[in-house]
Write a structure and sequence with these properties.
About 80% of the residues lie in helices and about 0% in strands. The chain is mostly helical. It has one domain: MFS general substrate transporter like domains (Growth Hormone, Chain: A). Helix 1 crosses helix 6 and helix 3 runs antiparallel to helix 17.
Length: about 450
C-alpha cells in the first residue's frame, strides 16, 4: 500500500474495490442502449430479437448473477475477499469480450451468463470487503459508495450509448457499446494487486498478526487496538464452530436474519427499479419517442440516480435505516400510480416528457432511500463466521427477483402497457408492510454489536 494517513489508505482501497461496482453498473445499464440495435434484423447488424428474446438476453446476465452471488460469497469466505475480487475481475473481462463478439443469440446468452457470474460475485464481495475495511463510524458512507459507483457505471453506460449511437453508422454499434464493459474490471484487477486483505477475514482464519498489520495501516493505533479486541472477542465465541454451511440455517436467529436479507432483496427489485434502468429507452419508445431521442433522454435517468445516491449517502449518517426505507417506498408507490395514469393519456410529446419526469421521480426515491440502505445492510446484517455465505444467499435471491422482472417486463409492457405500473404499485405496498413489521434497525451500531443484538432478539 502507498503511504499517507490511514483514512487516505481506506479511501483508496474503497475506490479500487468499487471498480467492481462500476463494472456492475455499466454491464447492467449498457443493455438498455444495445437492445434497440439488437432487435434489428441480422442483415442490418442486429440479432433480430423479439420482445421475448429481449427478456431472455437481458435476464440471462441477471440469472448468472444469482449463481455468481452465492459462488462469490463462498469464495469470499474460502479464499478471502481480495483474491475473490481478482478472480471475478478476470471473469468480467472474458464475459465482456464474449458478449461484444457474439455472432448469435445463443452465444450472446452464454457470455451474458458468464458476465453475470462476475457481476453477481462482485455484488456480494465488494460491499462485504468495504464493510470490513471501513472504520465503524464511516462504514455507512463508505459502503454506500458501492451504490454510488453502480449508478455512476449506469450513467456512463447511458452516456456512451447515446454518443456511440449518434456517431456510429456501422452495423456493429451494439458491439462497441458492449466492448467498453471490459475497461472497469481491468482497472479492478490492477488495483487489487496492491490492496490488502480484509483484516476481519484474516483474523477469522487464524492470521491475527497479519490482521493487526493491516489494521495498523488502516486505523490510528488506539482504534486499531480496540478493533482487534472486538474482532477477537467475536471470533472466540464461534471459534470451535464449523465453517459456514446450509446447516447454519437450522439456527433460528441465523435463519431469520438470512430471510430478512432475502426479503430486502425482494423490496429492492420488486420496486421495479430495473424495469426503468434496463428498459428506459423501450418505455420511452412505447410512449412515442424515437430511438435516438429515447437514448438521449435516458441519460437524464442516470443523472438523477447519481444525484439521488449522493443525497442518500448524506441521509445515511442522519436517518435510521427503517425510516429511509419507509420514506422511499411511500414515494415509489406514488410514482408508480402516477406512471400508470400517465400511460392512459393520449400519445404526444408532452405525455412522453411526463412519463420521463415520473421515471426520474421514481428513481430519486429508490436510489436515495432504498438502494443505498439495501447494499449497506447486506454488509451489516450477517454474522462474521458466515457473512460471505449468508450475504451470498440473500444477494442471490435479489438477483433472482431482478431476473424475474427483467424477463417478464418487456412482454408485460407489450401486452398491457402502462397497467404494468399499477401492478408494481400494489407490490410495493406489500414491501412497505414488510419493512414496518420485520426489518431490524442497524443504525449507529458496530458490526459486532449488530450481531449481538440480533442474537438477543431470539
Amino acid at each position: 500500500m502507498p503511504g499517507g494517513s490511514p483514512e487516505k489508505r481506506v479511501r483508496l482501497i474503497v475506490f479500487i474495490a468499487t471498480m467492481g461496482a462500476i463494472g456492475f453498473g455499466y454491464d447492467t445499464g449498457v443493455i438498455s442502449g444495445a437492445l434497440p440495435f439488437l432487435t434489428l434484423p441480422q442483415s442490418e447488424g442486429g440479432l433480430a430479437l423479439t420482445p421475448l428474446l429481449e427478456g431472455i438476453v437481458t435476464s440471462s446476465l441477471v440469472f448468472g448473477a444469482a449463481l455468481g452471488a452465492v459462488v462469490g460469497g463462498r469464495l469470499a469466505d474460502g479464499i478471502g475477499r481480495r483474491r475473490s475480487l481478482l478472480l471475478l475481475a478476470a471473469i468480467f473481462v472474458i464475459g465482456s469480450v464474449g458478449t461484444a463478439l457474439a455472432p448469435t443469440v445463443t452465444v450472446m446468452v452464454i457470455f451474458r451468463i458468464v458476465l453475470g457470474l462476475a457481476v453477481g460475485g462482485a455484488s456480494t464481495v465488494v460491499p462485504i470487503f468495504i464493510g470490513e475495511v471501513a472504520p465503524p463510524d464511516k462504514r455507512d458512507r463508505l459502503v454506500s459508495q458501492n451504490e454510488l459507483m453502480i449508478v455512476t457505471g449506469q450513467l456512463l453506460a447511458y452516456t456512451f450509448n447515446a454518443i456511440i449511437a449518434a456517431v456510429s453508422d456501422s452495423h456493429g454499434t451494439w458491439r462497441i457499446m458492449l466492448m467498453i464493459c471490459a475497461i472497469p474490471p481491468v482497472l479492478l484487477f490492477a488495483g487489487m494487486l496492491f490492496a490488502p486483505e480484509s483484516p476481519r477475514w484474516l483474523a477469522a482464519n487464524g492470521q491475527q498478526k497479519r490482521a493487526w498489520r493491516v489494521l495498523r495501516l488502516l486505523r490510528p493505533r488506539p482504534q486499531a487496538a480496540k478493533e482487534v479486541k472486538a474482532i477477537t472477542a467475536s471470533i472466540e465465541i464461534v471459534k470451535d464452530e464449523p465453517k459456514a454451511s446450509w446447516r447454519d440455517l437450522r439456527v433460528r436467529w441465523i435463519r431469520r436474519v438470512v430471510l430478512i436479507g432475502v426479503g430486502l432483496g425482494a423490496v429492492l427489485q420488486l420496486s421495479g427499479v430495473n424495469s426503468v434502468m434496463y428498459f428506459a429507452p423501450t418505455i420511452l419508445r412505447e410512449s412515442g419517442l424515437g430511438t435516438q431521442a429515447s437514448l438521449v433522454a435516458t441519460i437524464g435517468n442516470g443523472v438523477i440516480a447519481v444525484i439521488a445516491v449522493l443525497i442518500g449517502i448524506k441521509s445515511l449518517t442522519r436517518l435510521p435505516r427503517r425510516r429511509m426505507l419507509t420514506i422511499g417506498l411511500s414515494g415509489i408507490v406514488s410514482a408508480h400510480l402516477l406512471l400508470g395514469l400517465a400511460f392512459l393519456l393520449p400519445t404526444s410529446f408532452a405525455r412522453s416528457m411526463l412519463i420521463l419526469a415520473l421515471m426520474m421521480v421514481f428513481l430519486f426515491f429508490i436510489q436515495s432511500m432504498v438502494a443505498v440502505v439495501y447494499w449497506l445492510m447486506m454488509s451489516e446484517l450477517f454474522p462474521l463466521r458466515i457473512r460471505g455465505f449468508a450475504a451470498g444467499i440473500a444477494i442471490c435471491m435479489q438477483w433472482v427477483f431482478n431476473g424475474a422482472v427483467a424477463l417478464l417486463f418487456p412482454s408485460l409492457l407489450d401486452a398491457i402497457g402502462g397497467t404494468t405500473f399499477f401492478i408494481f404499485a400494489a407490490v410495493n405496498v406489500l414491501s412497505l408492510i414488510f419493512v414496518l413489521t420485520v426489518v431490524p434497525e442497524t443504525y449507529g451500531r458496530s458490526l459486532e454489536q449488530i450481531e449481538q443484538d440480533l442474537q438477543r432478539t431470539e
